[in-house]
Amino acid sequence: MPGDAAMDQPPLGRRAQQRQQRLAQILAAAEQVFATAGFEGASMAAIAAAAGLPKANLHYYFGTKEALYAALLEELLRLWLSATDAIRPDSAPDAALESYIRAKMEWSRSRPHASKLFANEVLRGAPLLSAHLAGGLRAQVEEKSAVLRGWIAEGRMAPVEPRHLFFAIWAMTQTYADFETQIRLVLDVPALGEREFEDGVATVLRLVLGGLALRA
Amino acid sequence: MPGDAAMDQPPLGRRAQQRQQRLAQILAAAEQVFATAGFEGASMAAIAAAAGLPKANLHYYFGTKEALYAALLEELLRLWLSATDAIRPDSAPDAALESYIRAKMEWSRSRPHASKLFANEVLRGAPLLSAHLAGGLRAQVEEKSAVLRGWIAEGRMAPVEPRHLFFAIWAMTQTYADFETQIRLVLDVPALGEREFEDGVATVLRLVLGGLALRA
DNA sequence: GTCTATACGAAGATAGAC
DNA sequence: GTCTATCTTCGTATAGAC
């Protein structure tokens, strides 16, 4: 990309790259600490220790603890909103919902910290997220709900309130990240692995596809 | 009740009653504050303000913040473990599961703070609850799972991993308490009311009973 | 840009009067 | 038993040397 200012000046580009690496390094540590300790429970010292940096550096890059937290939420929100692509009017209902469920479950498996971070934020009343929930998320839910209502009207799936169906799917899939501790203790396994996620996917698929008369 | 020591001595009895009232007053305030702020986010000053007492009184009755939090968890745990009674070998599978789902959803409606408190605790890794989760809860899940496996073996419901079915039901019902903020914003309503919980119950019942081939 | 040392405030806990 | 005043710790944030 020859118009990129950062690439035109190797010294500056290297510095910018260093900067991006530091930012990512801090954000990764913050994701982990905020996820399990919550906003109030997480200390800048703990995040700094997880990132392997003195805590003054965190303030140099992000200013305040809340700014770091907000930047993290902002970054993770993009991933969050990019999983419903499979639900389109021309899709087959069963394949679309199965794809969506598998994507959500994979998100819980690969990014449990991100899911826990959102859970903590919503539990707190979503002070930094309510605008996004009432904006982008609501709009996306309305759009996809319209698709589902179309399928229902065509008799291609059982009648259900689409928005509540989304709440149910979110809950069932995210619980494998947010309530991992509880699931692990009840199942008496040291950690959730392939087996547990396969059983989870199978259960959710049975309830959703079976409940909506999309398979035997 | 004539053998009751508290009733035999009116002055002492009245004092004990006063004490119980204070304890309940503080626990109710603590439930509300801990639920939305989490353990670290909640301050003794905030709980004291919610209870209408000076914060020194909280320390007089409970000693430390952690002891207050532990007492609260202990108290709520009893309610938590008392909802699966409907699932018994001689029950009809559809009626038993419907009764269980309605009980769990009613719990989310009437005691959202308690649900949020548990959610916060589990998100933190359940430092004060892991013994109960690996003990009483696991035992109860195993017992009820055996009942479900019996029904499956008799061909009375579709095959499903019973423990994961419980995880799914817990997630779908508790989400109306824990993620109330998100649901409220997506639905664009000022608060969750009769309508929203009816839609929620209908959705969960459809997925579970339909998914397990317990109704059309 | 990086890090040590520190200022400032908030919160848990207690002392001691009433 | 109750409450005000205070002690102490801890965490955020910054100052200032390198």
From TrEMBL, chains A, B:
Domain HTH tetR-type as annotated: residue spans: 20-80
Q: Per UniProt, which keywords does this protein have? A: DNA-binding
Q: Which residues bind DNA?
A: 43-62
Among InterPro entries, the record links this protein to: Homeodomain-like_sf (IPR009057), HTH-type_TetR-like_transc_reg (IPR050109), HTH_TetR (IPR001647), Tet_transcr_reg_TetR-rel_C_sf (IPR036271), Tscrpt_reg_YcdC_C (IPR013573)
Molecular function terms from GO: DNA-binding transcription factor activity; transcription cis-regulatory region binding
Q: Please name the Gene3D superfamilies in this protein's record.
A: Homeodomain-like, Tetracycline Repressor, domain 2
Q: Pfam families under this entry?
A: TetR_C_3 (PF08362), TetR_N (PF00440)
GO BP terms, alphabetized: negative regulation of DNA-templated transcription
PANTHER family the record matches: HTH-TYPE TRANSCRIPTIONAL REGULATOR RUTR
Q: What is this protein called?
A: TetR family transcriptional regulator
Organism, scientific name: Teichococcus deserti
